């Protein structure tokens, strides 16, 4: 049996990637949500909570990992970020492999990975779809999130591969600073192309 075409879906913070991921689901494509998996692994009873508490004391509680406290501990500390990634990424990889096995008969499978390029995940997918919007739109959307500040936004963006580079390395770019109907139509065209085994 042939393996599915593996599609990496990525985009910087505030670009609308979660919305586009749902559009892929609506088109019938199974989507592995790396962020959602991290939340589950770090949530109440999650299997990464103990390891994270050991490395970052005081960042967990009855509800699992306190993301605000953990974020404050690692966001501007490269060594701390690498230590966290060494805990999280292998565990997510195991879950991603299990997801792929469970959808082995699908023509395409989408891996929704915010840090696809930053973690080298682009090497393990067959096609790359980047979700993008104008910088002003990105900033406005992100600053509307609860607890977000301009300084935090700037720190997050500084750790991410620039949008222009992501777009240059993509097989497909989905714009989200247009109407929702236009974005949905663009996703449908990409899905049709991918199912046809074409690359742009």
Summarize the structure.
The protein has 200 residues and is of the alpha/beta class. Helix content is 50%, strand content 14%. It contains 9 helices and 7 strands; from the N terminus they run βαβααββααββαααβα.
Q: In words, what does this structure look like?
A:
By secondary structure, the chain is of the alpha/beta class. It has nine helices and seven strands. The chain has a five-stranded parallel β-sheet with strand order 2-5-1-6-7, with helices on both faces. β3 and β4 (64-65) form a beta hairpin. α2 crosses α5. The two termini are 25 Å apart.
Defining key terms:
single chain, 200 residues, alpha/beta, Rossmann fold, 5-stranded parallel beta sheet, two-stranded antiparallel ribbon, 9 helices, 7 strands, 50% helix
